[in-house]
Automatic annotation (TrEMBL):
<dbReference type="InterPro" id="IPR029061">
    <property type="entry name" value="THDP-binding"/>
</dbReference>
<keyword id="KW-0479">Metal-binding</keyword>
<dbReference type="GO" id="GO:0006086">
    <property type="term" value="P:pyruvate decarboxylation to acetyl-CoA"/>
</dbReference>
<dbReference type="GO" id="GO:0005739">
    <property type="term" value="C:mitochondrion"/>
</dbReference>
<feature type="domain" description="Transketolase-like pyrimidine-binding">
    <location>
        <begin position="50"/>
        <end position="225"/>
    </location>
</feature>
<comment type="function">
    <text>The pyruvate dehydrogenase complex catalyzes the overall conversion of pyruvate to acetyl-CoA and CO2.</text>
</comment>
<dbReference type="InterPro" id="IPR009014">
    <property type="entry name" value="Transketo_C/PFOR_II"/>
</dbReference>
<dbReference type="InterPro" id="IPR005475">
    <property type="entry name" value="Transketolase-like_Pyr-bd"/>
</dbReference>
<keyword id="KW-0670">Pyruvate</keyword>
<dbReference type="GO" id="GO:0046872">
    <property type="term" value="F:metal ion binding"/>
</dbReference>
<keyword id="KW-0786">Thiamine pyrophosphate</keyword>
<dbReference type="GO" id="GO:0004739">
    <property type="term" value="F:pyruvate dehydrogenase (acetyl-transferring) activity"/>
</dbReference>
<keyword id="KW-0809">Transit peptide</keyword>
<protein>
    <recommendedName>
        <fullName>Pyruvate dehydrogenase E1 component subunit beta</fullName>
        <ecNumber>1.2.4.1</ecNumber>
    </recommendedName>
</protein>
<dbReference type="InterPro" id="IPR027110">
    <property type="entry name" value="PDHB_mito-type"/>
</dbReference>
<dbReference type="Pfam" id="PF02779">
    <property type="entry name" value="Transket_pyr"/>
</dbReference>
<dbReference type="Pfam" id="PF02780">
    <property type="entry name" value="Transketolase_C"/>
</dbReference>
């Protein structure tokens, strides 16, 4: 039986406490490999460790401070400080008119957010998980995404939809689906998926400032992960452009394109490829699912001649499928081997630990596919 909606936060917290000691398969370090120590930044001075949770919190606080039209609403965002503590301290700082707890009715509070955006405000609508955003899909797509086009460009809809998306340990099929491809297929929506703390802060601020709907797909397992943050990213004017990918690791032998938590796994696999085989894999962090930075992908493919996409979503009609299709359309002449994708399994996420581990890409999965592609 599904967990009653009334007890979501407590049930999820209890589940994570009970399951933590027996889950060695998904260490946080898998998301932040040692290669981060040598990663380049806008400025090298003043780098400090910041968790993704704190980076998101900082972005929200800065936008609430500078833009009086901005407010946050969602389940548990105020008095409870958010189910994942992303909104910690914001109620005390900005008050109950700008940090608003809602009933457990996604269609209702999402509709309120879209209506407020159409009236000229800049709401930030938090879903406890994007799996529950399915309750509000009509509001997101028909009411928000299509309005600008249907109004002939007259009516903007500045609303940000954010929350955890995709794989999370021990929550089974109804709390772990990846919706990157779902939202990425909708005209009128921009979709971003941060990996690092810099990604999280810069992309969320860009989403809040965008005049039309943006979906920010975070990952539950990354919230507590600390990443180095540059001095430039610590400033309140730091914003990342939507639609621009980042090369996290340069290389010449293989292009690996990934997003969200799978970026860390891909970097770990790239490090092993270098150590074991001397292969230099280039790892691209998409950051933005839509618009997609096709230029960066094709330029990398032109250099390496081989491309692999890594994501945690289902294999059919996914983000990887789209990227490989675009690689064929715009970079076919550069390919020296068939394009490859590494995805989640074609199965609803199991609850059992062993089956769960087999349902998502792991470092050894990526490494195995890469060695086949490179014929090592």
């Amino acid at each position: 039986m599904a967990t009653p909606r009334l007890f979501r936060p407590a049930a999820r917290l209890l589940s994570s406490r009970l399951s933590a000691p027996r889950r060695p398969a998904f260490p946080q370090s898998a998301c932040a490999p040692s290669i981060l120590r040598s990663r380049g930044y806008a400025t090298e001075g003043g780098v400090k460790e910041v968790t993704v949770r704190d980076a998101l919190n900082e972005a929200l606080a800065e936008e609430l401070e500078t833009n009086p039209k901005t407010f946050i609403l969602g389940e548990e965002v105020a008095q409870y400080n958010g189910a994942y503590k992303v909104t910690r301290g914001l109620l005390d700082r900005f008050g109950p008119k700008r940090v608003i707890d809602t009933p457990i009715t996604e269609a209702g509070f999402c509709g309120l957010a879209v209506g407020a955006a159409l009236a000229g405000l800049h709401p930030i609508c938090e879903f406890m998980t994007f799996n529950f955003a399915m309750q509000a899909i009509d509001q997101i797509i028909n009411s928000a995404a299509k309005t600008h086009y249907m109004s002939g460009g007259i009516q903007p809809c500045n609303v940000t939809f954010r929350g955890p998306n995709g794989f999370a340990a021990g929550v089974a099929a109804q709390h772990s689906q990846d919706y990157s491809a779902w939202y990425g297929s909708i005209p009128g929506l921009k979709v971003v998926s941060p990996w690092s703390s810099e990604d999280a802060k810069g992309l969320l601020k860009a989403a809040i400032r965008d005049p039309n709907p943006v979906v920010v797909l975070e990952n539950e397992l990354l919230y507590g992960q600390a990443f180095p943050m540059s001095e430039a990213a610590q400033k309140d004017d730091f914003v990342l452009p939507i639609g621009k990918a980042k090369i996290e690791r340069p290389g010449k032998d293989l292009t690996i394109v990934s997003l969200s938590r799978c970026v860390g796994l891909s970097l770990n696999a790239a490090a092993e490829l270098k150590e074991k085989y001397g292969v230099e894999a280039e790892v691209i962090n998409l950051r933005s699912v839509k618009p997609l930075d096709v230029e960066t992908i094709v330029q990398s493919l032109k250099k390496t001649g081989r491309i692999m996409c890594v994501e945690s979503g289902f294999p059919m009609f996914g983000v990887s499928s789209e990227i490989l299709a675009l690689a064929m359309e715009y970079g076919f002449d550069y390919l020296t081997a068939p394009a490859v994708r590494v995805t989640g399994a074609e199965v609803p996420t199991p609850y059992a630990v062993g089956l769960e581990q087999m349902s998502f890409p792991q470092v050894d999965t990526i490494l195995g596919q890469a060695t086949k592609l490179l014929r090592l």
